[in-house]
Amino acid sequence: MELADKSHLLTAQIMADLHAHWTPHSGQVKALKGLINKTHSVAMIQCGRKWGKTDIAEYALWRWALLHPGSVCYYVAPELKHGRELIWNNNRLVRFGQERDKHGRPLPGGKDSLKKYIKSVNQTESRLRLNNGSQIVIVGSENWSAANGLTPDFAVYDEFKVFKRQWHTEFNPNRIVREAPLMVIGTPPKPGDCNKQQYIELADQAREREDMFHIEASSYENPHVPRHAIDAEIEILKQRGELDVIEREYYGRLVYGGASAIFPMLSRERHVRPHAEIIQEIKRDLKKLEWYCVTDPGTTTCFAALFAAVNPYTKKIYILDEIYETDQNETSVRSIYPRLDAKMGEFYPTGDIDDDWFKVYDEAAAWFSAEVLHQYGTSFFPTQKHMHKKEHGLSIIKDTLLHDLVVISDRCTKLYWEAEQYAKDDKGNIPKMRDHAIDCWRYLIAAANYNMLEVLEIIKQRNDYDRRAFSLREEADSWHSDNDWTKSFTKHWDLGE
Predict the structure, then answer these.
(1) What residue segments make up the domains of the chain, in order of their start?
(2) Cβ contact 21:100 at 8 Å
(3) What is the three-class DSSP state of 293?
(4) What is the predicted pLDDT for the residue at 294?
């Protein structure tokens, strides 16, 4: 028998032993498929409780170790003690191949299809050695100083949301060099979780990059958990009003702020519309609208800008587009201003950029205004943000959202992303980070002299007018009904007979 045939038979035997007593459900297969086929380098799985994250983590570690002889596979927990409690002290990892009951729980004393592959179990090092030279090792993120010395072939991050941030910084370069697949699995972070921001950053990368995979996995995907049991737990949380907990813990959705969200009323369905639809709505009122180009110039982190139109009669705000440049090579005035100019020309092609656009910049970046004036002869005006408290601007933004006075184009992905995850910290303070587009939004409110008392009075007057008009129509309809002179006509009256 040729070596290739022997290898094929060995692989078939390994797969049969892996699946002898446990098989991943369809949701788990979908989450793991890219890593197995090597089409994705990272799989980020935001899963609800009872989805089966521990089982799929153990399965992935065993599968990679068995099919790739001599590999070192790491199971990384927030702390080593945590990892040992989850899969080591209870023998879950070592006896993964054991027979299970109908609920998927290992049967004590049951047959173990994977036992024959184990060479040794090192309790001190939490290390499982296999006969083919592979190892599965449990480590904790608190030992981040040792992470840059590890050489992974496969890794699982369990509950990444509470990792020590330095772990991924030290560990990831070695993983990338060795092209080692990474599975990140667990429930999404909640406000106060120590590694929330790094989790969000990695999740954003996983959504955007073709070589990475991201999925939201509901608790309901696990066929071994009775649906009524999940329903009962969710109903209790509903009665408490903890809807953010339901979304996060059972549907695996990233609820950025929860109770700490600064814009909890923000809704994609309610406030975001297709760009073409907005342009169609405003095209007949171009000359009536007030036009704004609002910038938050930055050269080291981000240059942000928003383009907006305000209807002075209805006070409706249309946020049409954004610039969110994080490449430092592209944040100079010579690179940025032509992009600003092009967008202003796109939205109001018959207008004059100097006369019809109110152009604003954060006065902390006076260099920007000076350079634009010198190079392009165009004036930008300072925000005078020192005259407007941040909290006041955010309050007005919230009011406009509540009263449906703002429409956001679907082009403004970064603005929505910032606003969605904008939340107070665990001390109740408003963070000064990831708010470049939000700052532009505040500057827009200030530049437009947006006063909610005046706006609400306009809304009240319009509603009063609508009610009076409706009442008059009802009276007219009633009069015509009571004074219908055609009632005296016979049913078959006809001038021709």
Answers:
(1) 17-251, 268-452
(2) yes
(3) strand
(4) 97
Cα→Cα distances 155→74, 150, 242, Å:
5, 11, 34
DSSP 205-245: HHHH-TTEEEEEE-GGG-TTS-HHHHHHHHHHHHHHT-HHH
> What is the Cα Rg of the chain in Å?
31
Q: Do domains 17-251 and 268-452 have the same CATH topology?
A: no
* Cα dihedral value 347, 336, 327, 422, nearest 10: -50
Q: Which two tokens stand for residue 285?
A: 């009122």
Return the structure tokens found at 374: 């010198």
CATH of domain 17-251: 3.40.50.300
106: which strand partners?
100
**H-only helix segments in 363-451:** 366-376, 390-402, 413-420, 436-447
| pLDDT of amino acid 432 | 81
What does the pLDDT read at residue 388? 66
pLDDT tens sequence across 137-193 = 999 999 999 998 899 999 999 999 999 999 999 999 999 999 999 999 999 988 778
Note the pTM of the prediction, 2 decimals: 0.62
How many other C-beta atoms are found inside a 10 Å radius of the C-beta of residue 221? 19
Instruction: Spell out, as residue ranges, where the chain has pLDDT lower than 70.
Output: 1-6, 103-104, 256-259, 299, 385-388, 426, 459, 462-497
Q: Residue 153 and residue 135: Cα distance in Å, rounded? A: 10
CATH 3.40.50.720 at 268-452, yes or no: no
What does the pLDDT look like over 349-398, one tens digit per residue?
Answer: 999 999 999 999 998 899 999 999 999 999 999 987 656 688 889 999 99
What values do phi and psi take at 492, rounded to 5?
A: -105, 20
pLDDT of residue 243: 77
Structure letter (DSSP) for residue 432: S
**pLDDT value at residue 208:** 85
Does residue 274 sit in helix, strand or coil?
A: coil
Strands (E), 54-161: 72-77, 118-122, 127-130, 135-140, 154-158
What is the predicted pLDDT for the residue at 488? 44
Q: Are 331 and 343 in contact (CB under 8 A)?
A: no
Integer CA distances (angstroms), 113 to 9, 74, 100, in order? 16, 22, 11
| H or E segment and range at residue 307 | strand 303-310
CA distance from start to end of the chain: 107
Strand stretches in 100-210, DSSP E = 118-122, 127-130, 135-140, 154-158, 182-186
Residue-averaged pLDDT of the chain: 87
DSSP letters of 6-64? HHHHHHHHHHHHHTSS----HHHHHHHHHHHHTS-SEEEEEE-TTS-HHHHHHHHHHHH
